[in-house]
Amino acid sequence: MGKLLSWIILIGLVWAAIKLLQISQRKREAARRAAADAFGDGAGTDEAGSGAGNGTGSGVARKPFGESMVQCAHCGVFMPRSAALPHGDRFYCDSEHQRLDSNRGT
Ligand SMILES: [Zn+2]
Questions:
Q1: Spacing, Cα 30 to ligand 1 middle (Å)
Q2: What is the rounded distance in angstroms from the CA atom of residue 38 to the CA atom of residue 65?
């Protein structure tokens, strides 16, 4: 009977580990979505499927208050619009990322 009990405990532990993983993944996704909502990113399209790598989207985001925030189209970091380097309809956190992204093509 002891063997059966240990199997039940093992299965329970595996199940709990899977559940915890699912919950943490869901939380992370919800937090990311909430952040996108808070910034009012109208693009809404996640470029994860395009294989672009960092999937930064359109890069332009707006805060509900204060100065508007923009996202570096290369590394995805957020910064005030006044501190960003505009390039077409995209923004970059520094000239290096602007250069790297323009070398990449589109
Ligand atoms: Zn950057």
A1: 24
A2: 10
Run of H or E residues at 90: strand 90-92
In 3D space, the residue among 34, 55, 31, 30 whose CA is nearest the CA of residue 45 turns out to be: 55
Q: Tell me the C-alpha to C-alpha distance, in Å, between residue 63 and each of 10, 68, 99.
A: 48, 5, 27
pLDDT at residue 91 tops 90 = yes
CA 10 to chain centre: 35
Using the 8-state DSSP alphabet, how is residue 53 labeled?
S
Among residues 74, 67, 105, the alpha carbon closest in space to that of 91 is found at 74
Between these two residues, 38 and 30, which has the higher pLDDT value?
Answer: 30
> Cα(84)–Cα(93) distance, rounded to whole angstroms?
5
Output the CA 86–ligand 1 centroid distance in Å: 12
Report which of 95, 79, 76 is spatially closest to residue 87, judged by C-alpha positions. Answer: 95
